[in-house]
Amino acid sequence: xRFDPAALRFDDRGLIPAxxxxxxxxxxxxxxxxxxxxxxxxxxxxxxxxxxxxxxxFWRKGDTSGHVQRLVEMRLDCDRDCLLLLVxxxxxxxxxxxxxxxxxxxxxxxxxxxx
Amino acid sequence: xRFDPAALRFDDRGLIPAxxxxxxxxxxxxxxxxxxxxxxxxxxxxxxxxxxxxxxxFWRKGDTSGHVQRLVEMRLDCDRDCLLLLVxxxxxxxxxxxxxxxxxxxxxxxxxxxx
Lengths: 115, 115
Prior knowledge:
2 copies of one chain form a homodimer.
Chain A: E1 16-22, E2 28-34, H1 36-45, E3 49-52, E4 57-60, E5 69-76, E6 83-89, E7 104-107, E8 110-113
């Protein structure tokens, strides 16, 4: 079956959440959002392009920072309303300089830095 | 710093996306949604409780299917608007009977079953 980005299930803003995972280590790096055009561009370029909700603009990951995400494989879930991006991440994925955005754990009711 | 579920950044429906990952293999299993009470219940019980958007009710994963998600660790991202749940998943996570919901890949412009 041909894949049509427009046949994904987008929310009322026209967006779908995309989870980026380092393809070889399994580390979950970040979650961001895509619209249909960002999905199409990501597949066409082999580089991850998100939709920035705060800037209301395409966000070609790494254009400013150099921290590019090369797409290894795109997957969709059973409901077609979420994407999993297997990527090869150059440098940190997080704007804080951490490899992953998920560097805070909840342990014994408190926040702990595990980054 | 104490962790307060209400201090997470929820969307305009009062929900936050939660990515479930098998803690030891790194497999990304599914993405679902939580409200503040679901986050609190998950931490209190050590079992993952989502908020079902379709049923508008708490969804204590595995209560019907037996496919429980035991919480190993909860993490939050740098923006506090997404959760990563390291879990121990009993059986399949997906309602289709697949281990992971992300069993469809996009390869050469077509959908491929990789589950």
